[in-house]
Design a protein that fits this description.
By secondary structure, the chain is of the alpha/beta class. The chain contains twelve helices and 23 strands. The protein starts with a strand and ends with a strand.
Amino acid sequence: MATFQNSLPDLTRPFPPVDGPAIYIETYGCQMNTYDSQAIGGLLEGAGFRLVDNELAADAVLLNTCSVREHAEHKVISRVGEVRNRRRQAELGPVVIGICGCMAERLGDDLRKGPKAVDLVVGVDNYDALPGLLRGLTGAAAGTGGGRGAVTGHRLDAHYVAPPELYPVNNSHLVTIHKGCDYKCTYCIVPMTRGPQSEKAPDVILAEIADIVARGGREVTLLGQNVTAYRWQGSADFGPLDFAGLLERVAGIDGLERIRFLTGHPRDMHTHLMDVIGRLDKVCPWLHVPAQSGADTVLRRMKRLYTAGEYLDMVDHARRVIPDVTFSSDFIVGFPGETDDDFRATLDLIRRVQYDQIFSFKYSERPGVPAARLADDVPAEAKKARLAELMDVQQGIWARTAQAQVGQVVRALGEGPARRPPGAWRLRTPNNRKVVVLGPEVPAGAEATVRLTGWEATTFFGERLNA
């Protein structure tokens, strides 16, 4: 259900029975997009629409999109054609197709042109326009694209709350605490698609989480483009509040057992924040803090606002004050001007930190971002080779880390059935390590004590000690 700043809807009331047009929502991209899709679904259900889980049963299909990489946008355009082809093959009538989210914000009216034009385009701050647009479109002939309308543009006061009925994701309830970003890293399209940083009010955040707990939720994941940059300037109910202060307030909610968050920015991982994380038992000891590169020259061209040395100092302090802390990160290889020595510096940083997990990408230019003015001068083959070497180094690091854990006894939390083997259950440790066990069910959210017996890829296998 949508909310605007300091105006939390009453989520304790059940939605009225719905028999209106059927809406299918498909999500691409990050956890924030997942949360936004949940918010869109709640908003539409509250307005009398029905949510369905099959595009062929829908009167309208909404694609909630990502623009971080060009491939993600191409995938959405292909999906538009695929949806229409499937409808024709099933001998169904035309369907309303809308594109929401970051891609809608970046391309706007252009998405309503050409052979794969869509019927409506709604940006990240205008989801409250969807009920009215969809009522008009689903009541008329649609599916041909063009001429329908695009609603885009950033509104600092527009914040959304997803109803708990649509949760959770891996037993963790997603909660967006702010949107947008002010850092303007030179390679990043987020400031264009998500706009400037704007905070959701603390009372709205706390009320949302309290409602999640009242409905049985026990874990939340706080989300933001740079979640650690949260800064509330103060209001009648709250004084100034940084992310550490917000964590302390959230941890004070009775019945909430675990708090995760992502994504953190190295510049905002202050010693005070890490001290608070180490002190609060409810905050899980897992930090996803993208480094992007280990070379100071590249970090300056990326406008990341820290050095490799400062990043390593952050890691060292976290390991001193946060018991059992683990790290994951993002890296870009082949950024404009990256030399072999720069790439070696990245490998050195990876070896020093000993990450549990890395998400790594070859640099690709995004139109309109500052880095697009730099010469993309690293050959494609060099990017490919560097990415392969980085992944090989990380695989070796993780193999040694994982093997050293075999035989250890850990606490882990049930998430649901595992994909394989049959009869197995998926669990996750507080520091974000995946564990699969056989035997009696481990209910979602239940804690189990497990001895780790082996591992494969990024997943451990274990045996329960308290079955």
